[in-house]
Design a protein that fits this description.
heterodimer, A: Enolase-like, domain 1, 3 domains, 27% strand, B: 786 residues, Aldehyde Oxidoreductase, domain 4, five-stranded mixed β-sheet, globular, binds flavin-adenine dinucleotide
Chain lengths: 268, 786
Amino acid sequence: MIPAKFDYIKASSISEAISLLDKHGDDAKLLSGGHSLIPAMKLRLSRPEVLIDISGISGMNSITEDGNEIVIGANCTHADIVNSDLINSDLNILAQTAKHIGDIQVRNRGTIGGSLAHADPAADYPAVVLACDAKIVVEGKNGGRTIAATDFFLGIFTTAIAEDEIITSIRFPKVANGNYQKFFQSASRFAVVGVAAVKEGNSVKVGVTGVAGTPYRATAVENAYSGSSDAALHAVDGVEDELMSDHFADEEYRAHLAKVMVKKALEA
Amino acid sequence: METYIGKPVKRREDARFLKGAGKYTDDIKLQGMTHSAFVRSPYAHAKILSVDTSAAEKAEGVVAVYTGSDACGTFGVPCGWQVDFKNGETMREPLHPLLAKDKILHLGEAVAIVIAETLELARDAAELVQVNYEALPAVTCPKKAMEPSAPKVHDQWEDNAAFDWCIGNDRAEVEAALANAHHVTEMTYKNHRVAPNAIEPRSYISDYDVNADKWTLYTSTQNPHLVRLLLCAFALGIPEHKVRVVSYDVGGGFGSKIYHYTEEALLTWASKEIGRPIKWTSDRTEAFLTDAHGRDHIVHSKMGFDADGKIVAHLTDEYCAMGAYLSTFAPAVPTYLHGTLFQGVYTTPLIHLNVVAPFTHTVAVDAYRGAGRPEATYLLERIISKAAKEMNMDPAELRYKNFIPPFNGTTEPGYQTQVALQYDSGNYHGVLKRGLEMLGYEDFRKEQAEARKNGKLLGVGISTYIEGCGIAPSAVVGSLGARAGLYEVGHVRVQPTGKVSVFTGAHSHGQGHETVFAQFVADKLGIPMDDIDIVHGDTDQVAFGMGTYGSRSLAVGGSAIIKSVEKVLEKGAKIAAHKLEAAEEDLEYAEGKWTVKGTDKSISFGDVSLTAYVPHDYPEGVEPGLDFSSFYDPTNFTYPFGTHIAVVEVDADTGKVDLQRFVACDDVGNVMNPMIVDGQIHGGVVQGVGQALLEEVVYDGEGQMVTGSYMDYAMPRADDVPMIETDRTTTPCPHNPLGVKGAGEAGAIGSTPAVVNAVVDALAHLGVTDIQMPVTPQRVWKAMQN
Ligand SMILES: Cc1cc2nc3c(=O)[nH]c(=O)nc-3n(C[C@H](O)[C@H](O)[C@H](O)COP(=O)(O)OP(=O)(O)OC[C@H]3O[C@@H](n4cnc5c(N)ncnc54)[C@H](O)[C@@H]3O)c2cc1C
């Protein structure tokens, strides 16, 4: 469990991180909490030649209110999110989700930016950013842009971030009535299925992680919903051909679990 | 005077463990020490077309690179137990080479070792070794391995069987009884493969001293002397008196650190080649791929009952994986440690077990906590519960009906089984009665009926186990194919000042020997525990020993120590009699002194010890010194038993099992330290629950391991288990001086079927009769759909 050789550079600003990314290109990787990247490096599945540590950049770890939005710095740890009064009161669904990530050590190191950039198909946050219609704010050598959550996840470990870009923050609308339901994988305790539901009156937005290779909005559920959780039957409509399968949950069981967890989220 | 036996004395060793100050093999750093990394096969079965080490040899910091083509390629590690075919053919025993030369037979098999100045450089250089493989089809399932079309593991034999063995009554007789039975219950299932997962991975350092022409091997092992014997006499053929094996603290083993592994022998060989010490510590991936696994039996079983519910016959056929090579105890596990327990706690008059043990393209399967006995218990306890359902009887009642009546083994004889053993003493009714009482069985059944009305799926599962421990009488195991004796050595050295060093061949890998052994020695000598030191894990200090496994350390190792303590007291009495000018028969020994009966004339243990070493005024014909060593060879195995009961609730939507209660009433004979026994039971129960609900090694069709990390291999965690409710009955072992039976494996043996019985019970009204372990949410849900 010893990584291949690499160089380490600690970036002190976003612009420095971007120019280092630009300079080293493919050979470099950003390092935030290190709780996805370092395990992969120890197994030599990932072998970057240069690590650009962004964890010390100031201004990337605050949680602030901006009108009707909450802006979360990409370097905020899962624990920062669990412990934020603002999030607990105005974006409670995110605190619920963060609480279910890993264990205390993982939550103290791992960051929301790192998790979203990593795009593990079994990660928890993707369901919530989708259901909340959050926006991922990135900056690159050609300036900044904002990516809608629904455009962000492109596949397993694949996102819309360009090679020279870095996530700086995530903007969430305030959410009054949201709920996250997770069915834990018994070994890793990642999500076999994770479902976030955000309700407003008689409508709902549902984000699903763990089920298909790419986390998705369960639009069929949203369309069928008018207050009854029966809409959960449509949990995997449209992704039937993309269902993931492993020794914990094959396609049939995963599809079933998706329906069960959507139902729970709708009923909560 | 403070006494210790039977008290929850805090573990002395925990002070260093809790401070992170234990001394494990990987903590040792020797001057000039090199580090090593292995090049391991990414295939389960392949031809090695070529190995090119030239780039690795030239890499920074590399000291040496060896492959199967070097001299070490001719050596192999031995198997310690021979189980022949029932038709008389000798067990098929392949060479288990230190490095693969022409062929790969399991995933992770080592092709080369790279030795370098640092671990990092060794790892980097290992990646430069170029191996060309030609992948071949693999077989990992023991039953498929016996199909005519199965790929062969070893080309030299006509099929994959290592042996085909049976035990018990004549097969035809058993079949006839089944044919005439009133009811026959049948089961087909897999007792699946699990990985041992000791928290400390295997770690070895070999240090060859050129000037002394001696080796020191530091190793994380459960049995230093056994490793030395196998290494010297079989693997390398080097002189035993020139090898010292040292094992300080060992962080768990569960059986996996009994065996003499290829890496130990290879490092020993290589350290002489390079004239420097070499260290290797397994990483977690290597542990999954190369530590011997447990279980992996495919079982087909039939049990017949008469109209009254009495068992009339039991017939079982099993396919039990050996892996690619025969590990140290492997052949014994599905045979003499398994078939001999098929009597269980029942009066079954006719039993027959047939075991086909094939080679498979997997790492070896060997003893894992309980070793063969959990597999026997799982079968008996599942099938009897299944039979109870089928015959519409209460599972507790069916057990009571079939129990062997209580016997104490002293005034009442031991119980002779149909499968070669004689049980020492037992009261199986007692533990079941107490277990049911602890649970509140009748109330639970009412609660369950109520819950069912509300759609809640509650279930209770009972298991009443017996196991054979205190391994083992040498002559008996010798006749069963063991290539070693299984006695133990206990040496008591009284120092001139009356302080005592106890040397034992048993070797704690977490069990607490330093505490328990000191407790009973202190009581027997009537001196404080603080005056006693327990020494283990060093072949230069301890005369000999067979190590720790099979719940034998106290029953066999403790008995050896007691023998030496008795010799100390016998000789001490001679010295005391001389000093007190009294006859030996007139003395009594209590509270650390010899007293002339009926007087206040006495002499302390310390004064006698001093006299023994300063023998100025000394009895004639008695040697100076107070120092005795004893070998103890038990006359029988010991047979702990107990009742484990699990209560589960199954989530109807997801199939997830919630283990709500776990009751364990065990009988381990006399108890030296109840806290340590509780700890052993807790750990064992959790391990057994792990197998029932979570853990499984999965290989895919190519022999790739799907579960090679903790991301995919599910270990039980604290929140997977409820508080474990324990109690005990006490039926002393009649044939060893402490009356102890052993507690190390009981938890893992009794718990697994209790949990699965509970899950099946929760779903019985839905028509579920069995679920393959581990009973994962997916499996439970699927069972509910059918
Ligand atoms: C034991 C364990 C259990 C876990 N359990 C869970 C769980 O239950 N649920 C769950 O969702 N996750 C879980 N995780 C993953 C954890 O949440 C990680 O912390 C997270 O996935 C990655 O965040 P990080 O800050 O550690 O990122 P890093 O590991 O530092 O980086 C991950 C990737 O993101 C890139 N990156 C990091 N920051 C940025 C940025 N600002 N902009 C662009 N790219 C960036 C890196 O280059 C790298 O490729 C677990 C991890 C462990 C070790």
